[in-house]
Amino acid sequence: MKKTAIAVLVLFLFASLLAGCAKKEAQPQLNLFTWEGMFPQEVLEAFTKETGIVINYSNFDFNETMLAKLEAAKGRDYDLVIADDYIIETVISRGLAQKLDKSKISNFGNINPIYQGQFYDPKDEYTVPYGAGVQTIVYNDDAVDIDIKGYADLWDPSLADTLGIIANHRVINGMALKVLGESYNTEDLDTIRRAGQKLLELAPNIRIIKDDNLQDDLLSGEIDVAVMYTSQVTMAKLANPDLRVVFPTEGIGFGIMANFIPSNAPNPDAAHKFIDFILRPEISAQCFEWLGYYCTNKAADDLIADEYKDFLTLPEDFTGDMEMIRSVSADAEEVHTEVWTEFKAACGQS
Amino acid sequence: MKPEALAKTGEPRPGEPTSREEGARKPTKRRDAMVLSVLPLYVFTFLFVIGPLVYMLVLSFLRRAEVWGVTLEFTFENYANILKPVYLKTFLESLKLACLTTLLVALFGYPFGYFMARQNAAWKRRIMVLLMIPFWTSSLVRLYGWIIIFRANGVLDGLLMALNITNAPLKVLYTYAAVVVGMVYALVPFMIFAVYSSAEKLDWQLVEAARDLGATPFQAFWTVSFKLTLPGLLSGIVLTFIPSMGLFFIADILGGNKVVLVGNLIQEQLMKARNWPFAAALSVVLLTLTSIMIALYRKISGVKDLEGLV
Questions:
Q1: What is the DSSP letter of A115?
Q2: Which of A265, B186, B230, B274 could form an S-S bond across to A79 if both were Cys, CB 3.0 to 4.6 Å?
Q3: Are strands A136-139 and A244-246 parallel, antiparallel or unpaired?
Q4: What was the ipTM of the complex prediction?
Q5: B65: nearest CA partner in chain A
Q6: Mean pLDDT estimate for chain B
Q7: CATH match for A136-252+323-349 among 3.20.20.140, 3.40.50.300, 3.10.105.10, 3.40.190.10
């Protein structure tokens, strides 16, 4: 009796397994690999409804994790990845991305040219940008006595213990480099060390160093000034429109997120379809309002609602004269880490 | 099992010279079964404990590649790097925080566990449940609870200002004190349980006997109860000290990233700076340090059995 029962159960299991397989084969798939929450649910649903392609959304926390997984899978497993510029440079150099078939992307021309031809993909062969960010200074006017115009003002003694910054060592070290009039990407070790010395003078002003939800601390009054990512600026501004946003006079380094198709993607057709879909102006506008990063689709700029326009689209006279943060040599990276660790410890002491 | 165990531990007595071989020969069948049943455990340990440890050790002697990954090049550079003052300081900082945390946890946890063991069965159960309930939520969520308490104009500030003790927000969040409170909060249950389990086994008649023989309550406690609950206290210390060397997210969340511990450094080297060999070297040193600590505890205390811990 027991044996038959077990046999029946096992049979059922196999049957359901087969059914699962059959279902999978019938419907085309898109294995999307990116951070959590990059698209509004409606957009993903609309895509599936229109094309019949089912989206398997898997996510990573860090670019580095993505690269490690992609490397382990030898460019298989995923059809479309969205990640940051500097890591895409590595991905392409290691042959883990495939060239796009632009004949399948009819909306390719919608991309804002400012975000094209960048260091990671100079000929725009592999990538389509999806959102860009800058690090801007945001502050609460009522609580701050001085007029903040650029990074250098953050060193002002009146800001003691009121400053919150993101935990990205290249951005923060870069801030000091810019104040010294140097490049973000300098390979000169002494220059990086000098920036480190400069940063130590900033330590008494630092209250928090963190990447996640820094805007909450600004809104709750824990800090009065913040250096943070575009998406956080968007959230802060939506919650409190009185906050002042400053584009630092020292120059801004854009970070660009972009789509690419891994070298051995199982369903490249689906990936091309998806890229084309999100490049449609009305879909793009919907995505960027939701995502809160700079709109990289020129055709969508006009469709973005007025309350978002200030921080999702570039000013008319913007020339695109900007320096981006790029990977530096291992030696330079080591000094950056050292400088950063020292700086953080100094913040705890003061 | 029995004869073999005897053979291993007991000195070979003159009367039974071949007990060792005999013991090995007799229960072969049973032994085969035993080997088979523990084999998965060995395989598991090898794959998921020894394997990664060896991998980490090897990695710590390699050099980082220019952009991504490592190159197969033997070097002591990573260990030499740790000797730089800036990184040595993180070890000192970790040690300092771990000692402070352990001390505070012992101060709170020991009396708690001790008096908990003296309650009647119903109260023991109730206290146990109260101690367990917070574990139903993730520790991260509980830490966020502390943020709500500590933040400017949060619960703590509200209370202090309502009572007219302070008249401006204290700014406790993102300070060293906040980190210490978070660490103590996260680790105190381990101490309580360890002390409780050894205090529960304590024979109270011994304390009564000491009192009958003229000891003051403190003398009775110090010479009898304390000595007998020492294994619990020591295993509590080990259970607190070792995690507190490695817990990095509390310093991140409540300390605003300004307290740089070895754990933070390892995480950052691994996830952000992409210097895996250096992260591995740091981990090896941390592992060695904590092992030495355990050995020291055992040596100093003379306790071999830390409540079945080590």
A1: G
A2: A265
A3: antiparallel
A4: 0.75
A5: A330
A6: 83
A7: 3.40.190.10
